[in-house]
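R.M. (postdoc): so does anyone remember the format we settled on? I'll just put the C-alpha cells first.
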C-alpha cells in the first residue's frame, strides 16, 4: 500500500521504478569495479617502484643484466631454431644484414639452453657474429639445482663433443662463417675446452669458469688463442687449477688471456645466481668482445 501510494504521488508507473532500481544497481557495480581496478593499479605500480623488494630477485637481476650489456652492439638481428645435430634444435642469432660473419658456438650452463643463454646469443649477434647456442640437454631446461646436477650426470661426453662439433660444422657449412670460436659458461665452459681439444679446427676459445685440464698431451691440440674468465673465490674451479692450466698453455706456446677476478665466486656472470657480480660481468664481457674481435675479425 505504501509503495502504491508513493508511485501514485509521483505519477510514476511501477515499470519506471524497476528500471531506475536496475540503473542504480548497475552504477553501483560499475563504481565498485572501477575502485578495484584503481586499487590494483596502485598496488602494481608500487611493486614496480619498489623493485626487487617484492619482485623475485632472479627476474630483477636478469632485467639488470640485459640493461647492462645491451647497447654494446647496434646491429639488428634475426633468430631461428635450426636442427643442427640429429633431432636437436639450437638457437641461432645473426645480423639481419646479409654478409659473411664470424661464427660462435655458444654452450649453456648446467641449467640448459634457457632464456639467459638465448639473450647472450642475441647480444653477441648484435656485435656482428653468427651465434649458434647449442642444446646438449636436448630440450630440457631447469632452474632447480638438483635437477640440473641430474641432467649433467646424464650427459655422455662423447655425445656432447659430437653435439658441439656438429654446431661448428653447421656454422661453417650452412652459415658460411668466416672464422669460428667456442664460448661457454660453467658446464658450457668445460664443454668449450672439450671442443677445442677434440680436433675441431677453431680460431678462438673462451671459457667462463669451466672445468679445466693441465694435461699438455690434451691441450696440444689447440692451435689458437684461449681466453679464460674466473673468480678467486670459486670453490668449484680452484685458482691453483687455473694457474696450472695457464702454465701448461704457456709451455705449449698457446697464446692466452686468463682473467681472475678478485672477490667473486663461481658463476659470477649469471644474473640468476647468488654470486652475480654486475661490474665484473660487464668488464669480462667487454674483454670477451675485444678478444673475439681481435681473433675473428682481423
Amino acid at each position: 500500500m505504501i509503495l502504491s501510494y508513493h508511485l501514485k504521488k509521483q505519477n510514476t508507473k511501477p515499470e519506471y521504478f524497476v528500471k531506475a532500481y536496475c540503473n542504480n544497481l548497475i552504477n553501483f557495480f560499475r563504481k565498485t569495479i572501477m575502485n578495484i581496478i584503481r586499487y590494483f593499479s596502485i598496488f602494481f605500480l608500487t611493486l614496480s617502484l619498489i623493485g626487487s623488494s617484492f619482485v623475485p630477485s632472479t627476474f630483477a637481476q636478469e632485467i639488470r643484466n640485459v640493461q647492462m650489456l645491451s647497447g654494446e652492439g647496434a646491429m639488428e638481428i634475426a633468430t631461428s631454431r635450426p636442427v643442427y645435430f640429429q633431432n636437436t634444435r639450437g638457437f641461432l642469432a645473426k645480423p639481419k644484414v646479409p654478409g659473411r660473419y664470424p661464427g660462435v658456438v655458444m654452450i649453456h650452463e648446467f641449467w640448459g639452453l634457457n632464456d639467459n643463454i638465448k639473450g647472450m646469443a642475441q647480444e653477441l649477434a648484435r656485435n656482428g657474429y653468427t651465434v649458434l647456442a647449442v642444446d646438449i640437454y636436448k630440450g630440457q631446461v631447469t632452474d632447480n639445482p638438483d635437477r640440473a646436477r641430474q641432467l649433467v650426470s646424464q650427459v655422455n661426453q662423447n655425445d656432447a663433443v659430437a653435439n658441439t662439433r656438429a654446431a661448428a660444422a653447421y656454422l661453417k657449412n650452412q652459415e658460411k662463417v668466416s672464422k669460428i670460436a667456442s664460448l661457454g659458461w660453467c658446464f658450457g665452459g668445460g664443454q668449450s675446452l672439450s671442443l677445442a681439444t677434440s680436433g675441431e679446427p677453431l680460431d678462438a676459445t673462451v671459457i667462463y669458469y669451466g672445468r679445466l685440464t693441465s694435461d699438455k698431451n690434451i691441450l696440444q691440440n689447440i692451435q689458437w688463442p684461449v681466453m679464460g674468465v674466473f673468480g678467486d673465490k670459486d670453490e668449484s674451479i680452484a685458482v691453483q687449477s687455473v694457474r696450472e692450466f695457464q702454465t701448461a698453455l704457456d709451455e705449449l706456446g698457446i697464446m692466452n688471456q686468463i682473467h681472475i677476478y678478485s672477490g667473486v665466486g663461481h658463476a659470477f656472470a649469471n644474473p640468476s645466481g647468488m654470486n652475480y657480480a654486475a661490474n665484473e660481468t660487464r668488464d669480462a664481457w667487454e674483454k670477451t668482445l675485444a678478444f673475439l674481435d681481435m681473433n675473428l675479425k682481423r
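R.M.: ...and that's the designed sequence above, right after the C-alpha cells. Also worth knowing: The first helix runs from residue 2 to 9. Residues 57-296 form a domain with the Rossmann fold fold (CATH 3.40.50.1820).
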